[in-house]
Amino acid sequence: MPNLPTIAARSCSLALGALNLELRPSGAAYALDQSLLIVADLHLEKGSHYAARTGQFLPPFDSLATLDRLAAEIAALQPRRIVVAGDAFHDGEGFARLPEAARARLLALTRQSAFTWIAGNHDPLLPADLHGAAAEEMVLEGVTLTHAPRAAFVGAEIAGHLHPAVAVSAYGRRVRRRCFAADDKRLILPAFGAYAGGLDVEDPAFAPLFPTGFTAFALGARSVQPVRRIGPRPLRALQSRQPPRTE
100, 114, 197, 200: least surrounded by Cβ within 10 Å? Predict the structure, then answer.
């Protein structure tokens, strides 16, 4: 594995159930007491999927870039365990399409730490030769880790799937950043993958998950900042709305 730069990050702290979490600029959440790193929606090999299925050719470096960022977080934090909360691959054949360098990086990481791979909607069945444990969901200190958040869920939950993003204004410019979306019962992680994209936190899909509103924590290059409070949305805003399609 190549030498990786140490990430000097200024995180935000979040208490969720019995977990004390650091929200990292990479889009990962780190539970220090459990030495557990949590990421979601790597969408490895999304670029090759688009090239093969749609003819839309993207630079074929997304998997390696994503894994390099994950490796840098592991080098900085030295977690004992890593949980990938669904959609590690963009489709069921993503592992087979990994370029040699990306495959070597992924296998090296899984030998270094104990991985748990939570099934996602893009990759419900993980490849048999991928190191680590597969799970539909897992419970840690009373907090359920899953892929798709559930509005009717009772208890504390960490999920991915929606790829939250927020628009912020600074120095006369308006930019869109990936973000965490959280209240005191639920945390939705931003997508970790290089090509994963994002769904604006003003989208009605978030309203049923946070009936009393939530905070958007935007990812910066070196820090995470709570930038917006999203208030409760009236139910009429949800009428005649199709569920969002996450990429």
Answer: 100
Could you report the per-residue pLDDT of 186-199, keeping only the tens digit for each?
A: 999 999 999 888 99
**Could you tell me which CATH class the domain 12-238 is placed in?**
alpha beta
Q: Which residues of 142-180 are buried (b: 16+ CB within 10 A; e: fewer)?
A: ebbbbbbbeeeeeebbbbbbbbbbbbbeeeeeeeebbbb
> Look-up: residue for tokens 């009373």?
142
Residues counted in the chain = 247
End-to-end CA distance of the chain: 30
Contacts 24+ apart (CB under 8 A), 62-67: 62/193, 62/194, 62/195, 63/98, 63/99, 63/102, 63/194, 64/99, 64/101, 64/102, 64/105, 65/194, 66/42, 66/192, 66/193, 66/194, 67/102, 67/105, 67/106, 67/109
Residue 133: phi and psi, rounded to 5, are -100, 140
Closest CA to 204 of 177, 173, 176, 239: 239
Residue ranges per structural domain of the chain: 12-238
The model's pTM? 0.87
